Every structure is written in C-alpha cells, then in structure tokens.
Amino acid sequence: MDQNNYRHFLAVLFCFLFLSPRVSCQLDYRFYDSTCPNLTKIVRYSVWSAIANDTRIAASLLRLHFHDCFVNGCEGSLLLDDTSTFKGEKNAPPNRNSVRGYEVIDTIKANLEKACPSTVSCADILTLAAREAVFLAGGPFWLAPLGRRDGTTASESEANNMPSPFEPLQNITAKFTAKGLDIKDVVVLSGAHTIGFAQCFAFKTRLFNFADGKPDPTLDSSLLQSLQSMCPNTADSDTKLAPLDSVSPNKFDNVYYKNLVNSSGLLQSDQALMGDNTTAAMVINYSKFPNLFSRDFGVSMVKMGNIGVLTGKSGEIRKNCRVVN
Ligand code: HEM
Ligand SMILES: *[C@@H]1O[C@H](CO)[C@@H](O)[C@H](O)[C@H]1NC(C)=O
Ligand SMILES: *[C@@H]1O[C@H](CO)[C@@H](O)[C@H](O)[C@H]1NC(C)=O
Ligand SMILES: *[C@@H]1O[C@H](CO)[C@@H](O)[C@H](O)[C@H]1NC(C)=O
Ligand SMILES: *[C@@H]1O[C@H](CO)[C@@H](O)[C@H](O)[C@H]1NC(C)=O
Ligand SMILES: *[C@@H]1O[C@H](CO)[C@@H](O)[C@H](O)[C@H]1NC(C)=O
Ligand SMILES: *[C@@H]1O[C@H](CO)[C@@H](O)[C@H](O)[C@H]1NC(C)=O
C-alpha cells in the first residue's frame, strides 16, 4: 500500500469503527482502490459485453440508477425481489414491465464477488454501470464518488411516486427539489432521454386525441405521422417501442435538446421543457453546446448519485443484489 492508499484505508477504517464526526464518512472516488482494485475494469467489461449483445441496455442501465436513487436514495432498494413476506419496488407501475437490466447487474455482482467478495455494494454497482453505459454509448465520462452501502428495505409507495410523463413540469420539478436537486438538474438529467426507448402508452395521448380531438400541437407533424404508424390508436400497440431520440437513439449526444427545439420530443414531459422560459433557455443552450451538456451531465449525475446514500455502518454489502443478506 502506498502512503495515499494507507491514509485512505485508515480514514475508512476510522469511519467504520467510530463513525467519528471528524472523519468523513462521505463518498470517495478512491473508496475501493485498495479493497477492489479491478472494480472499474470489471464493471466496464461487463457493461461492454451487455451492450455488444443489446445496444439498448446502455439506456436501461442508466435508467436503473435514476429509479434507484429517487426511491429511498441510492441504496439498491430497486433491486430487491418481492417475496411472500416482502413487497419491493419492481412491481410498482413505473417499474413493472418497463425497467430492465437487472440481469446485467446480477452478472456484474457475480463477477465482483469472485474478485473481491462482500466488498462492493449493489448501489455502487448501479452508479458505475450507469457511468460506464453513458461513456460506452459515446457520452461523457465523470469521476463517480463511491462507498454507498445497500439498504435493507424498499418503498413501494415512493416507487409509485416516481416522476411521470403525464404530469406537468412544475410537479416533476417539485419531485426533483424534494430530493435536493434543482431545475437545472431536471433539464440536464432529462438529457438521458438522448438514448433508449419508450412504450407507446407513455406518449400515445399526444398522437390522437390530445385536446379538441386533435394531436398535441407541440409535436412536429412529420414525427407525429411516423409515431402514429408505430403506435396505432388501439390498445394492442401500447407496449410497442419508439425511440426517445428519433434521430440518434443509441448515441449519447445532445440531439435530445435539438429535437426539443424542433418540437420533436417524444414524451409530453420532455417537450414541456420548451414550454417554460427558464428551462427553454437551458435547452437551447445545450442544443448548441454539446460540451456544456457533457460537463453538466456528469455534475448532475454525481448530485443524483448522492441522494440518500448510506455510508459507514449503515446498511450492508449485499451478497446477492436481489435479497437482503
Ligand atoms: C424528468 C422526469 C422523467 C420522466 C417523466 C421520465 C419518464 C420516462 C419514461 C415514461 C420512459 C419510458 C418507459 C417505458 O416506456 O417503459 C423513460 C425511459 C428512460 N428514462 Fe426517463 N424519465 C425521467 C427522467 C429520467 C432521468 C433523470 C434519467 C436518467 C438520468 C432517465 C433515463 C431514462 C432512460 C435512459 C430511458 C430509456 C430506458 C430504456 O430504453 O430501457 N429518465 N423515462
Ligand atoms: C486484476 O486483474 C488482473 C488482470 O487484469 C489480475 O492479474 C490481477 O490479479 C487482478 N487483481 C486483483 C486484486 O484481483
Ligand atoms: C442479450 O440480450 C437479450 C435482450 O435483452 C437478453 O434477453 C439476453 O439475455 C442477452 N444475452 C446475454 C448473454 O446477455
Ligand atoms: C400536480 O401536483 C398537484 C399538487 O401536488 C396535484 O394536485 C396534481 O394532481 C398533480 N398533477 C398531476 C397530473 O399529477
Ligand atoms: C431540426 O433542426 C435541425 C437543425 O438544428 C435541422 O437540421 C433539422 O432538419 C430539424 N428537424 C426538423 C424535423 O425540423
Ligand atoms: C416568456 O417568453 C415569452 C416570449 O419571449 C414572453 O412573451 C413571456 O412574457 C415570457 N414569460 C415570462 C414569465 O417571462
Ligand atoms: C448557457 O451556458 C453558459 C455557459 O456556457 C452559461 O453561462 C449560461 O448561464 C447558460 N444559460 C442558460 C440559460 O442556462
């Protein structure tokens, strides 16, 4: 152990032993440097393999971290399976038949248990998988503070209260500010919708009978036509998929914002960012300056990753992300 590692090791040790207020138990970029030196490599390779098999999984992994952090904080509660005596979050309507990627997290966890048993939390795996997924999809890289521990409970009711594509911007913003995020984070993190897909039911009301029997007037007419043919006005199209960014659905770029400027957002909640002067100015900024978006996205992801984390002696390091030890 070099001197820095040793100092770090001591800090973590003190944190665990005494929960001393003088020794910080906050997250740390180098948290696993001595206990799991190959961590980043293992996560990166696992995410790379998963993307090689299924391009969309990058988006799914990014969304997993969001859905974890917004419910009980970033402590892996999303990953807990229901049992006969335990009701988790996976079957809450915002997650059921929608959130995907759990098997990839299982694979990463299994690989990590071989390299460094009972060391890396599932919550940190979600953080790193999201970071690697964005980078491998062509997006920015940022340093991710680590040291989260896994929760032993879940909140079905909070999971039901996830931001919804059907609620107005003020409501979504209120849900972000309740987590310590702000309006800028709403705009920046919504940029995650530059990759991935949504089911027709999430935006179908915009296509046929939005108001006065007409489609949503804030939806570009040629995109409207193509969405109407992808999502015909019948219930059996509800689970069909459309790209959140119709121009470059697998590339993490700033085209999401260009689309919004062009009235080509998919979800009503996406396009709503252009319906408010403050957020519209930010959208226009990001549509012009990809590097500004890249930088701000990493900053907002770190903020999101800090929501309600468990550190020190709180929680546990799960051996299997689906069950409490
Ligand atoms: C601002 C409020 C948000 C709303 C209302 C929202 C809503 C949605 C909806 C409805 C879908 C499609 C789900 C489905 O059809 O099954 C979706 C997908 C997605 N969301 Fe969000 N989202 C929000 C914020 C975020 C944030 C903050 C992130 C990440 C930082 C994110 C990342 C994603 C990704 C990557 C997908 C595509 C997933 C895939 O293809 O598997 N979203 N979102
Ligand atoms: C890290 O991975 C390398 C191979 O890439 C291996 O030689 C080394 O033993 C691993 N270190 C640990 C601590 O697992
Ligand atoms: C490949 O991706 C498909 C679709 O997501 C999934 O069902 C399958 O399990 C994946 N296979 C591997 C080996 O990861
Ligand atoms: C938005 O929030 C208000 C106040 O909390 C609530 O009354 C309203 O039902 C919400 N709107 C939607 C569409 O969820
Ligand atoms: C959207 O804007 C870009 C320029 O920013 C333009 O090249 C593209 O054709 C526009 N798309 C639509 C549907 O208007
Ligand atoms: C928003 O911008 C529009 C058009 O520039 C302007 O007419 C309106 O007064 C602005 N609203 C607010 C609340 O600033
Ligand atoms: C646009 O970006 C610049 C930084 O390049 C920043 O100073 C400015 O405040 C941003 N404007 C908005 C409306 O976010």
Protein described:
The chain is mostly helical and 325 residues long. It has 2 domains: 22-163, Peroxidase, domain 1; 169-301, Orthogonal Bundle (Peroxidase, domain 2), CATH 1.10.420. It has helices at residues 3-18, 39-53, 57-69, 102-115, 122-136, 156-160, 169-177, 183-190, 221-230, 255-261, 268-271, 277-288, 290-305; strands at 197-199, 241-243. The protein has a two-stranded antiparallel sheet with strand order 1-2. α3 crosses α5 (122-136), α8 (183-190) packs across α12 (277-288) and α10 (255-261) packs across α12 (277-288). The protein is globular. InterPro entries: Haem_peroxidase (IPR002016), Haem_peroxidase_sf (IPR010255), Peroxidase_pln (IPR000823), Peroxidases_AS (IPR019794), Peroxidases_heam-ligand_BS (IPR019793), Secretory_peroxidase (IPR033905). Its cofactor is Ca(2+); heme b. Ca(2+) 1 binds at residues 68, 71, 73, 77, 89.
